[in-house]
Amino acid sequence: MNTHKNKTIIKKPNKTTDWYIVDATKYRLGRLSSHVAHVLKNKHNINYLPYQEGNTKVIIINSQNIQVTGRKNIQKTYKRHSGRPGGLKVETFNKLQQRIPNRILEHAIKGMLPKNALGRKLFKNVKVYSNNTHPYQDKQLIELNIT
User: Helix H segments across 29-142?
Assistant: First the structure.
């Protein structure tokens, strides 16, 4: 009697790391961050497993030039709390973009990843830079096209 008839055989993922690069000036905030989260979770790969970390790293350049539609640059707010009574700080998109432009994309991508240990591990594979200089010139970078 064969008891392992319906067993799924999973190949071990290869250890080569794919490096992707995205220029944020071309895309809107939501479309870019959802596609980056999709690539980080390795859903574009045929050997996708929801519990496995993929070997992909994403570099985002020119985050200071990210675009939003409508009046979101005035109306969208980002909140943080110091933990003390009355310590809620509210900041609009424009002010945060002038002060720390990377945080906008990091906040959006982190919200689209799983809220567990795997999500925290995947988020370490994203590198966001406010201009087009980055220390990964020696890697073989693949241009990530978002349609």
Answer: 29-40, 72-75, 93-99, 101-112, 117-123
Question: What pLDDT does residue 35 have?
Answer: 97
- Residue 134, domain extent: 18-68+100-143
Task: Output b/e per residue, 103-140; b: 16+ Cβ within 10 A.
Answer: bbbbebbbebbeeeeebeebeebbbbbbeeeeeeeeee
List the CATH number of the domain containing 45. 3.90.1180.10
Is the predicted pLDDT of residue 13 greater than 70, yes or no? no
Please check whether residue 106 lies inside any domain of the structure: yes
* 136 in Cβ contact with 129 (< 8 Å): no
Residue pair 13/47 in contact (Cβ under 8 Å)? The answer is: yes
